[in-house]
Amino acid sequence: MDRVLKWWNTRGSYRGERECSGEKRYVTLVKSLMLAALPLLCCLVYCAGEGRSLAEVYAPSSEWNDELFYFKQVESILNFGYPQGYFGFNESHALKLSFAAWSPILVFPWLIWGLVFGWNIMSPIYCNIFLVCFVCFLFVWLVRPAWKQMGVLALLFCLYKPFVRYMFSAMAEVICFVVLIFFYSLSINYLRREKDYKLAVLFLVSGLMALMRPYLVLFMLLPIYLWSRRGKSRAAKWRNGVAGMAVLAAVLGIYVCINHYLGAEYFTPLFFTDWISAFFEEGLFGGIYFTLRKLYYAGQNVLRIIGEGFRDGLASGAHFMGYLVCMAVLTVQAVRDWWIFRRLSGSRTGSSESKTEPETAAEETKTKLIIEAHLAFCFVAMFFAILLMYKLTEGSRHLLTFMAAAIFVIALMDTKFYKKAVLVGVTFAYFYFYVPLSPFDYEIPFKQEERADSVEAWTEAMQERLVLNREDTPNYDNVVIWVFSDMVGDEEVRTSYQLLYGLPKGFGISCCMRDYVTANIDTLKSRYIAVPSYGEIARLCEARGCRLVYGDDELALYELHGGR
User: Fold this and answer.
1) Which H helix or E strand runs over 531?
2) In the predicted model, what is the mean pLDDT of residues 97-121?
């Protein structure tokens, strides 16, 4: 046992608590400010490496089309409370109000930022940077990592390219990153000194995450477990656990209502449940067979995607590989700490007022064991959810949030030579810096003069020529169809949707596929349509006598009908 204790004191994890518990507050404040400056420093370095400045980041130069939806919806909420035209897909719309397929709760930090500082093209980017800086500050303040642990964290943070790329975007992923990192920071702080208000905040934050993205409900299991262990008797623990599950059920019920009433139908299901249906249609064994077969083929596809990531840096392959490495590290460390905890627990003696060294070591081990084991469980559960319920390439983006939180937890694994942190760092360095060849996934969207001039011209034209109908809103008079792509000659051309950033505040956007538009050209409900110039749909609009509102060599905006 003495050997175990000696090993623990030499290599133990989470020593930051012991090393920092007696340090002065100003030292912690200095550490917090130092780590808080890291995200901004990374952003400045990335920009300087391209010979550009932070002010030159420009969302309309990005090829990530979800950003337009997020930006314009936030703009409409800030100005009118909700979009005055429908956001949807193939002219779908929510049963109530006018939001797209994603919960409006997802963008609540941007709404707060917009209320305080106003909303413009740079607002989501500045807000993202501030949020990451702020959560880094909170992490140090709540967790008190040692200097070495901060160094490891800084290295992993810099190597994890999605941090910077998503800060430079109007995508909501950074909001998920920040909330989850705060969740684990507070969880570690709670386990070191249990207070009721901390547990209440953990329930609040995890419930909020579940309303933002449904798979984040996995993280509600941690505060439920923490609440159940607060009981003094077995019956009390059971009551607390049941109450926690009731809270989870209530949150899921709220999410279902939000998704049902406020979410527009997407082109395809956002997640697939055929493996669940198989149990009802084919019986227990038929369902098991269907599920295992689906896991097998999905697993093969994941291996293929990872292979492409090794060869040419395919983003989804990089995400899967980084995710699996983080999952393996968390699982191995959790098993090791469980082994250590069992041995340390056997040596616990003395009263709670005077803890012995084995008791203190056991409590510290239990703290990190709970965090690592829960995060590892969430990794495993989400991986199987991706295999069973999501499209692999698009679904891989959801893994980024888990890896962002794992970086902060792995940095606290103070093991000899930091082997696990080095493994994660090498993986990130290879996939995000050495091999990536696709600018679509990693290139920072800097301002391009030609694009900026076009956006400015379109903004001026649409502000003058499109009039918002404020009667009986939301309505289709305030909707512009954005045709995803069209045939121009023999070539398929994607619509320059970035020019729609200039739409008047309050207008909704319906992203429609070409086949839907051509099949329903005479019955489209939306008043306006934006299509590639000189394409087949543009010719259809001309043949029908639709009025050209504005156009250039990239985009043509037509009025399909005169409205109500």
Assistant:
1) strand 528-532
2) 92
